[in-house]
Design goal:
mainly alpha, single chain, 12 helices, disordered C terminus
């Protein structure tokens, strides 16, 4: 009986309730879209969810690769990409959080405070980004993708500090960790994944690299439903693409966690660097070539 009331167990129970509440909210928000737009994903959109979340579970991140594929196949308007990423990857990320929070033992206070900071950052960040016009979205995501590619490259070149062995933070380091995750939560709403930056933050604070997994996945699992509400309210997302990411992503997470034992992550990261830089260039080119139309300013009116 005592184990039922452990802090970690209560944390996961709260996460489960948030997931259920998000399903209900998303379902109700989708009713206002009317019968015109396609609501269900095609096989490509579901496969994108599978492949991106498979590698996401390995710590590579899903936002940058998903953005690149969306741009390549022109599946989602640029101004709807951040909302689609946050909404669609929510349930695969919640699945990851359950797996890694259970598997990795670390200080609960450090974990809970850093998760709470990321949620606060996402709430305020999404309130701004969801209302931005297309040109601002392109510039923001172009810069964000360059940052993501740089972080991948620095990791592969061993430029980043290697971390330590701590599984908890106190004092000044804990304060820095909270502030850092607050900022990273806000960046999530621009479409830049939290995983890479969080790994770097954890390493710089002297923590064991394995502590990054429950922190970054727990942070995303809690902040993504919260931030996604803003995008749902603004109708700033693609419904079929979001559903496809979720349907394909959850089984991919389970396969990656339980079956995959080893993989050349360095090679995969270099491939992602190339693709992400190409996508960032395309985003910035579109933003500065004179194509300055507003984002349908465009939240469509609700339909009865």
């Amino acid at each position: 009986m005592a184990r039922m009331f452990e802090p970690k167990t209560l944390l996961l129970a709260v996460l489960a309730l948030i997931g259920i509440a998000f399903v209900v909210y998303w379902s109700r928000a989708g009713r206002g879209l009317g019968s015109g737009p396609r609501k269900w994903p095609n096989p490509l959109e579901t496969f994108i969810g599978f492949i991106t979340n498979f590698f996401d579970t390995l710590g590579i991140g899903s936002f940058a690769p998903t953005t690149s594929i969306f741009k390549l196949f022109r599946l989602v308007p640029d101004e709807h990409i951040p909302g689609t990423l946050n909404i669609g990857h929510t349930f695969p990320t919640i699945t990851q959080a359950f797996l890694f929070i259970t598997a990795v033992h670390m200080d609960f206070t450090t974990l809970a405070l850093m998760i709470a900071a990321s949620v606060a950052g996402a709430w305020f960040g999404a309130g701004v980004v969801a209302s931005w016009p297309r040109r601002k979205i392109r510039i923001g995501m172009g810069v964000a993708l360059i940052v993501a590619a740089t972080l991948f490259a620095m990791t592969n070149l061993h430029i980043i500090v290697g971390g330590g062995s701590a599984l908890s933070l106190t004092g000044t380091k804990l304060a820095l960790g909270i502030l850092g995750n607050l900022f990273l939560g806000a960046l999530m709403t621009l479409g830049i994944g939290l995983y890479g930056p969080c790994m770097i933050l954890v390493s710089l604070l002297g923590m064991d690299p394995k502590a990054a997994f429950p922190i970054m996945m727990g942070s995303c699992a809690f902040l993504m439903p919260v931030g996604s509400i803003r995008f749902l309210d603004k109708r700033s997302y693609s419904s079929p693409a979001s559903v496809g990411l979720g349907l394909g992503g959850v089984p991919a997470v389970l396969i990656a966690f339980y079956i995959v034992k080893s993989m050349d992550i360095v090679t995969v990261r270099w491939l992602i660097v190339a693709v992400v830089l190409y996508t960032a260039g395309a985003m910035l080119y579109s933003a500065f070539r004179g194509d300055r139309e507003p984002a349908a300013s465009a939240v469509p009116p609700a339909r009865p």
